[in-house]
Amino acid sequence: MKQYPVTKNQQIEATIIDLSHEGMGIAKVDGYPIFIENALPEEEVRVKILKVGNKFGFGKVMEILKPSPDRQTVENEDLLRTGIAPLSHLRYEKQLEFKQQQVQNVLTKVAKMPEITVLPTLGMEAPYAYRNKAQIPVRKIDGQLATGFYRKNSHQLVPIEDFFIQDPAIDAAIVTVRNILQRFNIKAYNEEFNEGFMRHIVIRRGHYSHEMMVVLVTRKAKFFKGKEIAQVIHDELPEVVSVVQNVNEEKTNVILGKEEKVLFGKGYIEDELLGKKFHISAKSFYQVNTKQTEVLYQKAIELADLKATDVVIDAYAGIGTIGLSIADKVDHVYGMETISEAVDDARDNAKLNAIDNATYLVGRAEKVMPQWAKEDIAPNVIFVDPPRKGLDQTFIQAACDMKPEKIVYISCNPATMARDLTHFAELGYTTDTVQPVDLFPQTTHVETVVLMSRIEK
Ligand code: SAH
Asked: The TRAM domain covers which part of the protein (predicted)?
């Protein structure tokens, strides 16, 4: 049997040498790494070994023998345990440096571009209470409906009412909705047996408009007294302009199902970004930190340095937020997006803002781009804003075939972004500016905007 330098349940004293990209402290015993929650670089800690794996182990802090000067007090340790705010024990200034360093690391190691300097992360003045959306599981605990968040790497619900990083009006609304459901004797979902009824409460609240949408995710379509409940939710929470039932019958981690029914109100909320109005429906993607999204878009727009004659592509467009923010500065905007509800929103949003030079299409970016290339659409600037898995090679090839002067890449995953930047480089696009923006304070998530430009050959 292979020998490891530590054994399960053993307690050791260790010095933390690094912070993983998931925010875990790393200590090494004879070269064997141990990942430890709630431990920061340079700290000396007494650790109990929880798990010994083939290449690395996990440990739990029993005592902090020497705290880091960068440590700050966490009011409620459930915020660390659940992964709601896994970096909240680190001073905010250092969180911003940590994110800049994450991006620098992948540019050096993955993209092999050590010569590029990543700019300091643009952070928030008040880095909490920012989330405009909550997706909260509903379970039964001690015979009552409970709301909270899962313990990390598990589906065990930890009851929480103050989520710290969420809009406090959303925190309050979750409790109100939960109590209404309790009064109506609604059954909580049981994940183990795929039984019961109420799976999740999803709430969105417009940062500027304060309009609220409540989505009740249920296991079955039949919702006894659903409309009555929706009306009571509106009566007790007058900001609620829409209550939607979403049906998800599957045994799955995916929160929303396909089928939807409006139980009360208009079926969407309206909010603003950079002075433009946006309809947002339940299934559409919308950035969760409105203020920092404005900082992000402003930076992206500044880097793009648009001209009135420019044709622009807004790829992975969502509800059209990026394209419609710039449409009045350019000649035409083309956008594509896979979720048809989001494309409906994007088209509505164009009308809502009296924009008639934007065309939005339902389709997969990697299919639509080569098609547009064939149709001789010749963009001067392409914005891309893909999900975590990044871009497809077909997409990158088609984008470069169109020979835009600039490509602005907005990324929520530095690792796939770094991979993609090398592919763009092979096709003649250099990385000029790399700017992280903190959209997710107190968490380890990193958002980055990158400007690439074409080298004339
Ligand atoms: N630019 C928007 C949305 C960004 S999120 C904003 O800032 O709000 C990424 C979006 O890409 C999501 O709306 C998702 O539905 C969409 N998407 C995911 N895979 C896609 C694909 N293969 N092609 C096109 N869009 C896709």
From this structure: 5-63
Task: Find out whether 337 is annotated in a ligand binding site.
Answer: yes
Put simply, whether the predicted model's pTM sits higher than 0.85 gets the answer yes
Q: What is the pLDDT of residues 14-50, one digit of tens each?
A: 999 999 999 999 999 999 999 999 999 999 999 999 9
Residue 6: which of 40, 63, 48, 68 has the closest Cα?
48
SS3 state of residue 88: coil
pLDDT (tens digit, 9 = 90+) per residue, 272-284?
Answer: 999 999 999 999 9
CATH class of segment(s) 11-71? mainly beta
Give the helix/strand (H/E) hosting 447. Answer: strand 447-454
Instruction: Give per-residue pLDDT as tens, 402-415.
Output: 999 999 999 999 99
pLDDT tops 80 at residue 297: yes
Fold that domain 287-454 belongs to in CATH: Rossmann fold (3.40.50)
Indicate the CATH number of 133-273 among 2.60.120.970, 2.40.50.1070, 1.10.260.40, 3.30.460.10. Answer: 2.40.50.1070
| Residues flanking ligand 1, CB < 6 Å | 285-287, 316-318, 321-322, 336-339, 342, 364-366, 385, 387
